[in-house]
Structures are given as structure tokens and as C-alpha cells.
Amino acid sequence: MAAATVTEEEASELKFSFFYCMFSFWSSGILVLVCMLSEGVQVFGRVLHSAQFLALAALFELAKVWLVKVLSCHAPSLSLPNATPTDSKPVRGPVLRRAWVRISRLWVRLTPLAHLAKGIVLLLASWVLIVYITVCLGAPVTGWWTETGGFCALLTLLTAYPVLLVLGPSTSSLSSVSSSPVDTSLAATLLLNSLCALAGSWLGAFPIPLDWDRPWQAWPITCCLGAVAGHVLGNLAGAIRTWPKIASMKDHFGHPKRKFV
Asked: Which of 41, 118, 191, 235 could form a disulfide with 25 if both were Cys (CB 3.0 to 4.6 A apart)?
């Protein structure tokens, strides 16, 4: 049976989805395994919402997306829209006109920085939304603000942050993921990862009110562990979903698919 033909853009998206899921699965899985065995559940759960870990996780996600971008040749990821001046001729005329033209050209050159600022604002807005939903679902209202803020920052890094890095810092990127169809597209993969992380954090809240009298039954240790576990499983599911489509492609990895008799 002939392999389905795909465009170069679709091929790069598929490769990006697969490599991103595999790198995320192995790196996060090894981190969870090593830290759980060496530090224990309670210590590792507290580390997950600490400021130092969140900063390192943000830098690691940035480096991971860059590496996958290089391997898959996915142009949109880690790219900021850049506009070039339409007119580069010398400016002549009155002083006010020359000043206005130069300011307009400077503003066009600063377009990438404007989009970067927009991405930061969207990231903060996503964090505020997650804080609001978390409090509505039962997070402590008085006190524990550091723990709640750290937990919501972890969820933001696992959901909105990869979307903005991969698809671009815009509201359309977030909306395209939330409304993506159930297929093997890149947006669907990011949606699956986000939903698994959110579901894992929600399931992680169940042990907190139980009368087991364990030290790790404290907010938000189990929720952080659940979010990371959901992240790991979501990336594994994403890699499994995209692999059949990649295996059926020809001439996108530099050699045709071999047939064995």
C-alpha cells in the first residue's frame, strides 16, 4: 500500500511533534525517577514548585524547543514576526515629517520586541487564569500563596509556555490549540500534553484530604507530582500517536522506507 503523501510543512510538524514528545518523555521521566528514588516524594514535590526549579524548567524548555527545531527544520517555532521598512530612501522634507518617518521605521524594526512583550503578557495572563481556576477548585484562599503561585507557574510552564514557544506569542496560537481537531497535528499534540498535565494535577488533589497522616499530603505536593506525571504520560501518548504517520512517510528523513521480503 502506498504511503500517504505529505507536504514539507506537514512533515516538519510531524517530526517536531515526535521529537518533542520523545525528548520531553525521557527527560521528564528520568527526572521524576531519579528524584523520587533519591529525595523522596515529599522533598521532590516541594522542589517542583520552588522558584529555582521553575526558572531552570523554563530555560530547559526553551533549549529543548530550540534543539527540536534544529532537528525537524520547523521554522515557526522560536520565531518572532519581523517587519521590514517598506521605504528605505533618504528622508527629505520638513523636520516634523522626517522625525515621523524615522520614528515609524524604528517602530517597525522593534516589531520582534513588541511580540516578545506580548508573549510575556500572555504568559502572565495564563498564570492569572490558572490561579483563579485553582482557587475556585479549592486551593487555599488565605495563606499558602507562595505554594499556590508556584504550582500555577508549574502548570503554566507545562501548558501555555510550550504553545507560545512553538506556535508563536499570540492569542491565535492559544486558540488554535484549544480548538484543534483530534489528529496528529502539532496543535493537537500540544493540546494532548496540556490536558494530560491538567488532568494529572486534578487527580493529584485526591490524596490530600484523606486521613493517611502522611507528610506529603500537603498542598500542593501531590498536585505538582500529578501534573508532572500527566506531562510524562501525555508526551508518551503523543509520540505513539505520531509515530505511525512518520513511519509511513518517504523521502523526508533522507531515505525511502525499506521493504523486507
From this structure: 235
From residue 21, how far is each of 15, 73, 197 by CA, in Å?
Answer: 10, 16, 13
Residue 101 lies in a domain: no
Query: Using one digit for the tens of pLDDT, what is the confidence trace for 207-221?
Result: 998 888 888 898 999
What length is written for the chain?
261
Residue 163: CB atoms within 10 A of its CB come to 25
pLDDT reading at 183 higher than 80 = no
Contacts of residue 242, defined as CB under 8 A and 6 or more positions apart, other chains included, come to 14, 17, 18, 21, 184, 189
pTM: 0.85
Q: Establish if 73 belongs to a structural domain.
A: yes
Residue 106 lies in a domain: no
CB neighbours (10 Å) of residue 54?
A: 18
- CA-CA distance, 140 to 220, in Å (whole number)? 10
Q: Which residues contact 15 (CB under 8 A, 6 or more apart)?
A: 71, 72, 73, 74, 246, 252
Domain range enclosing 175: 8-80+113-247
Residue 58 lies in a domain: yes
